[in-house]
Amino acid sequence: MSSNLELFIATIARLRAPDGCPWDLEQTHESLSRYVIEEAYEVQEAIHNGEPDKLKEELGDLLLQVMLHAQVAKDAGEFDIEDVAKGINDKMIRRHPHVFGDKKLDNSKEVVGQWEEIKQEEKAESGTQSAIDGVPTAMPALLQALKISEKAVTQGFEWENEGQVWEKLESEIIELKEAISNPDMEKPEKRIAAQREIDLEMGDVLFTLVNIGRWHGLNPEESLIMAMEKFKQRFRKMEDMSTVPLKSLTAKQLDDLWNSAKANIKQEITK
After folding, report:
1. Domains along the chain?
2. How far is Cα 169 from Cα 166, in angstroms, rounded to an integer?
3. Which one, out of 18, 56, 162, 267, has a CA that is 20 to 30 A from the CA of 28?
4. Residue 122 has pLDDT above 90, yes or no
5. Can you tell me the distance from the alpha carbon of 262 to that of 237, in angstroms, rounded to the nearest whole number?
6. What pTM value is reported for the model?
7. Mean pLDDT of 162-189
8. For 195-217, what is the mean pLDDT?
9. Cα 243 to Cα 41, 237, 247, 249, 257, distances in angstroms
10. 96: Cβ–Cβ under 8 A, 6 or more apart, which residues?
11. Are 172 and 204 a contacting pair, CB within 8 Å?
12. Torsion over CA: 35, 36, 37, 41 (sign)
């Protein structure tokens, strides 16, 4: 263990000591859970922005959450950071028999397949039944969709070719349009059921889009984040370029301004 890591462990233990920090002493796994997610997203943002120094800082903040949870557990007599490290180290060795054993694999696809096979064996031993179990419901929905889809594929549940995925998307869009145009939406006694059907059909469209992305090795969460960042950049440029509030412009003026902002940003990038 490195000296810096030892110092960090000691620092967290000191914060949680009886005469330590009142805030840290009050924390539980439940009270800290939100920060794990928040810090993970900040790590992701630093990666997207290509900022190594920021990434180093955010990884430290994320590591802080791991250490705090481990210390809370240690104080409760459950486990400590050494147990956490041992558990994940054992898992890495167990799931990489092609590195730490005699098995040979030729490519990353085989590695992923082997990883899932070993996970399924572990699930069987623990009593878990379904191949698609184990995806956290607290995970963003797009990531859940990708994970569930990937797990289903390991069991052979897959389209034969990409064209079939596009056909599925087209059929789901048609079903969504039909659900939206359902006359039951105008009937108070049937509106709730009709709205639920729209929600389900919208979900089917999104889930199929996730699978299209999977066929091309894309992470839908990452793709959506990139699209939102692009939208925010162009929208802010529209605000900068307009001499009047955007809400006072016509649809045609907004469309023209959007295209101008798009061209302006592209020109700035190529300079």
Report:
1. 3-94 (1.10.287.1080), 130-218 (1.10.287.1080), 222-270 (no CATH)
2. 5
3. 56
4. no
5. 8
6. 0.67
7. 94
8. 96
9. 35, 12, 12, 10, 11
10. none
11. yes
12. positive
Whether pLDDT at 1 is above 60: no
Spell 233-259 as b/e; 16+ CB within 10 A means b.
ebeebbeeebeeeeeeeeeeeeeebbe
Cα–Cα dist 11/18, whole Å: 13
Q: In the chain, what percentage of residues exceed pLDDT 90?
A: 72
Distances (CA, A) of 246 to 6, 90, 215, 232: 55, 57, 39, 14
Q: Distance between CA atoms of 144 and 248, rounded to whole angstroms?
A: 40
How confident is the prediction for the chain on average, in pLDDT?
92
Helix, strand, coil percent values for the chain (each to nearest 5): 75, 0, 25
* Residue reference for tokens 């069987």: 124
Helices (H), 76-190: 81-94, 97-100, 108-126, 141-153, 162-180
Measured between alpha carbons, how far apart are the two ends of the chain, in Å?
A: 48
In our burial notation (b when 16+ CB lie closer than 10 A, e otherwise), range 32-53 reads eeebbeebeebbeebeeeeeee
Q: Which tokens is 188 given?
A: 């108070």
Q: How far is CA 152 from CA 4, 104, 130, in A?
A: 42, 25, 10
74-121 pLDDT, tens digit per residue, is 999 999 999 999 999 999 999 999 999 988 988 988 898 888 888 878
